[in-house]
Amino acid sequence: MPLSASLARGVASAAPGTLHARTVTGDLSAPPRQGLTVRFGRGEKPDVDLGVGLDDLRVSRRHGELTYRQGQWWLRNTGQQLVRLPRGRMMHLSTEPLPLTTGYTPLFVKGSGYREHLVELYVAGHDDQGPVSRRRAETVRPETWALDDDERLLLVVLGQRYLLYEEDPRPLTYAMAARQLIYLHPDGNWNERRIEYRIEAVRRRLHRTGFRYPLMHDKSEGRPNDNGLLHNLLKGLVESTTLVPPDLDLMEDNTAWPDPEQRG
């Protein structure tokens, strides 16, 4: 059961700023008292207050801590392995402490191999009544973005490896995509210049909608390679289910088409 549900009664009655924390081996609540520190890791009490990764020697005995000061809980990594936060943010032993926002924050302690150990955190707000059960409510659909037919076909061709859910996928080059699009639609007038123009138009349009990943160049950092922004575009469209594996059927007329990289 998620921390947000298992601690619902405690959160509802807790003072603002109260910290609730949970791992697979235990949970705790801590009041917002100046200077109070909550420690988590593989070790035993009194060295740590909350156990995490108890059987994983890659997890430090005291891997992290949360200290209440200046009206907030501050997270610090004190272990040898990285701690991963939402949006892919990482914390190293040398990283400055970060303040937690009100509400729910998951963090992951890197372990052995592909293991990551979850620590769920919840900071009560001023008017926090605790999580409300919504088991019978309709599921909220993912936020998706509208694409016209040409845009969808172009993005499917460029992002076919993303739609196959390959590990660490990369977009096809514009040259590869142009060759495949010409084969699929000889009358489509596809070329590298047109592809670049259409992709930039999509990036500009979605940039104004609060897209999850950066889609435009940061002028203060010079002009990076467009490939990174195309990667962001394809990654966001696939993660949001704007593009889904059945979209690969748009290429079904091309059943004999080999991997573009093998065509030279």
Question: Layout of helices and strands, plus pairs?
Answer:
Blueprint: H1 3-6, H2 8-13, E1 19-23, E2 26-30, E3 37-41, E4 50-51, E5 64-69, E6 72-77, E7 83-84, E8 90-91, E9 98-99, E10 103-110, E11 116-123, H3 149-158, H4 160-163, H5 174-184, H6 192-207, H7 226-239
Parallel strand pairs: 3-4
Antiparallel strand pairs: 1-2, 1-11, 3-5, 5-6, 6-9, 7-8, 7-10, 10-11
Pfam family, one: FHA
InterPro entries: FHA_dom, SMAD_FHA_dom_sf
Domain FHA: 38-90
Structural description of this entry:
The chain has 264 residues and is α+β, with helices and mostly antiparallel strands. It folds into two domains: 3-123, Tumour Suppressor Smad4, CATH 2.60.200; 149-262, no CATH class. 25% of the residues lie in helices and 19% in strands. The chain has seven helices and eleven strands. It has helices spanning 3-6, 8-13, 149-158, 160-163, 174-184, 192-207, 226-239, and strands spanning 19-23, 26-30, 37-41, 50-51, 64-69, 72-77, 83-84, 90-91, 98-99, 103-110, 116-123. The strands form two sheets. It has a six-stranded antiparallel sheet, with no helix packed on it. Strands 4-3-5-6-9 form a five-stranded mixed sheet, with no helix packed on it. A hairpin with a 2-residue loop joins strand 5 (64-69) and strand 6 (72-77). Helix 5 (174-184) packs across helix 6 (192-207). The longest helix is centred in the C-terminal third of the chain and has 16 residues, at 192-207. Mean pLDDT is 87; it is low at 1-12 and 254-258.
